[in-house]
Automatic annotation (TrEMBL):
This is O-antigen polymerase. It comes from Flavobacterium beibuense F44-8. Keywords: Membrane, Transmembrane, Transmembrane helix. The chain crosses the membrane at residues 13-42, 54-70, 82-99, 111-134, 176-202, 214-233, 326-349, 361-380.
Amino acid sequence: MGLKIKKQRIYELLFMACIVVPYFNVYEATFFIWSLTALITLRKKYSFTMVKQLACFTGILIIALIVSFFDFPEPYPFVRDFAYMLKPILGLLIGYQICKDYFDNPFIIIVKTGVVIAVFHMFNLAYAFTFLHIRDMPTLRMHTGYFSDFEVYTIIILIFRKQLGLEISDKRVKLFLPLLIFSTILYLARSNFIQFVVLYIAMKGYFVANKRSITILVFSVLILGGGYTAIYYSNPSRTRGIEAFFYKIKNAPKEAFKTHVNKYDWKDLNDNYRSYETIMTYKQVTDKGPATVAFGKGLGSTTDLKKKMWLQSSYMRFIPFLHNGFTTVFLKSGLVGLILLFISIFLLYKNKPFDSPIITNINFLIVGTGVYLIVSYWVFMGFYFTVDTKAVIFGFLVRYRENIARAMTNHV
């Protein structure tokens, strides 16, 4: 028993390292830690559920790899893209392999990690506000982080702790939950607010089709629609304090779906940059002919923005990855890769029922993840984003569900 507890502590530290390192936004460090962890935790057997997910992302990578052999890309762009496209596979493996069947109270590992990230974020905010004298939202987010999906998962797990079988004292919940909520709000990320709503609705079981769930969903849409209408007609400022956040909400519906963007109008280009990326990529891929549309341009390919633009840390014209994960996969692996990506999302909705309340609620969380991934891929690359950790969480959830099912079967 003592040996198992010691091993659990080691795996807890590995899990925490894999979740925390992406927040430093140095992908080389993330790739090293994730690759090392995936290798030292390798298993001999994997469930069919995990194999199907791994097959989808491996298929996307293999298509891009084969196509790239026809264009002979430069070594650095080729290796860079290979490492980036490998990220979802590593994340799924890590989450699945770290969650051992002898773990005591597995969800506490996620909670501890989420609290560490929240504390780090709060110190970072205090430093930026006090010593760097940052007061405007865009600059603050640039220095302290744009979003934190992991903290939202931690909040959901704490709120639904009883349904998920998490053993934690009320005293800790009263300490951790406000900290996590406050930290998440201060990211001022629209995607995190959407994520919370989606996961909360999922955990309530409202994505299971019945009369009650449909009523609740329609009512929620009406409330959200009313809120958006109020923000839209309040005409918030694009630069002034909290109004800048409301301006981003106002602009959200057209930001990623606009079909024409004037690159010479800086306001139009800035407000609808995600659409501009997609428009340029679609045009440049389709111009190459049917084969490229089907299988993409391969590893090392880029989208030409037709002008140099400031993107976070430097001016760039040729970009290897876009905000939109669907468009990125289309660029690298074409329509076939895009179909595989949609299959990987669809598989999250196909969960085998089991006579266990905890498994039922884990299934709810997985379905919620699938719904949110559609948004995540559209605005922030989903599993492919370099600071994203949802693939690790999903792998962890799948393995924990299997451990519970196996323990119940053996007990019977």
